[in-house]
Design a protein that fits this description.
Blueprint: H1 2-9, H2 20-31, H3 35-53, H4 69-104, H5 112-173, H6 179-211, H7 216-220, E1 230-238, E2 244-250, E3 257-259, H8 262-268, E4 273-275, E5 281-283, H9 285-290
Antiparallel strand pairs: 1-2, 2-3, 4-5
Length: 291
Amino acid sequence: MAKSIGKFLGAGGAGTSRYGSENDIVNYLNKYDTTQVDSANQNMSAMANRLSAQLSSRPGYVYSISASPDEAKRVENATYQNVVNMITPQFDSQRRQLETRLQNQGLSVNSEAYQNAMNNLNQQQANAYGQAAYNSIQAGQNAYSTSLNNQIAAGNFQNSAQMLPINEILNLLQNSKSGYDVAMDKYDITSQADKRTSENRTYNNQSQNSLGLQTVGNIVNSIFSDEELKQNIVEVGCLYNGLKVYLYNYKGDSIPRIGLLAQEVACKIPEAVYIDDSGFMKVNYGLACQY
């Protein structure tokens, strides 16, 4: 009896296929053209491979910079020479004026007062030259820093310019599916259906063993809506949400009934459909009719 009822109910095969909504997605993915995206990804992959092999020598990218010490030295020398050219005539003039003044005062060249006055002027001139040397060194260092910063800015600009087309391509690709993405989406859907198939077959096998002396009437009275359990199915109306209403009777039971088909409900309102322990689909009519 268990074997015949199990065969009659379709045990081992009921509810093991994909839902309509799943089939719709798979059909859409099967038609999804990823040729251009895959080609672009392949080009990007080839570019990345070439770049990775040339990271330290690729001329298009700047990996190190250095300022020119020659430029710093040139600025230093020029700054010092400009100051010397300016203050030397001034001190020469001051020296002549001092010598004339000291002679007018009647001081001889070998006198202590004369020597002290000249030594003071020489010290002022030496201090001026020392300050000029210090300022020139500072100017050279500033020139070196400026040259270094300019090199850094130029390198950053060049590297950023190199990345602009790459980033633009990546931005264009991020919203497009590749062949791999489509394959993984199809795998997810198929694996879910396979998992459900395995669970349903287990339920069906358990149902065959547990049906025992139960009658078909006891089973069909459990309000199954699985199309596999029904026959003489005739459309008689439609709910306001678009679900079709059918007149039918369960296989092995002559009593006419009216209701929905679980497979159709699963396509429109999947949350209203669940699978019984026996592996067949049932409908939560409260959920199916409230939309």
